[in-house]
């Protein structure tokens, strides 16, 4: 990620000025957890992720308008329709992902980002790096999935 200029405005009386992240900045364990630089970093990461999803969606829509599903051969048409069906399902999943990204950004503005919604404990930086929309610590997520699996099996 290049040097980023990020606007951070918290809710209520909490307000952050524009933050310039050093080139190649990565959150470190020895920093204050969810301090200004870490918030700026994850905000930029979330915004970049959302923008790339939106760009992919635009490209899909443009291609869908250009491509014709009027293949002369019925087998070719079926294949094209299957490909587009898969592509559109992928875009639908990404639409849902955008909602999760937006929720993460709201949590970041509210000062709740990076903390487990179940235990209130900090979520590890490694987990947030891998899954910036994470809302639970790894342990809480695993427990949640075990309970969900048991409920589903009943």
What does this structure look like?
The protein is an all-alpha fold and 154 residues long. The chain has a single domain, classed as Up-down Bundle (Four Helix Bundle (Hemerythrin (Met), subunit A)), CATH 1.20.120.910. Helices cover 58% and strands 3% of the residues. The chain has a two-stranded antiparallel sheet. α1 packs antiparallel against α2. It is flat. The N terminus is likely disordered.
Quick structural summary:
The chain is mainly α and 154 residues long. The protein has a single domain (5-113), classed as DksA, coiled-coil domain (Four Helix Bundle (Hemerythrin (Met), subunit A), Up-down Bundle), CATH 1.20.120. Helices cover 58% and strands 3% of the residues.
CATH level 4 superfamily: DksA, coiled-coil domain
Strand order in the sheet with the most strands? 1-2
Main structural class: mainly alpha
Q: How many beta-strand elements?
A: 2
Beta-strand content estimate: under 5%
Helicity, as a percent range: 55-70%
Radius of gyration: 20 Å
CATH topology: Four Helix Bundle (Hemerythrin (Met), subunit A)
DSSP helical segment count: 4
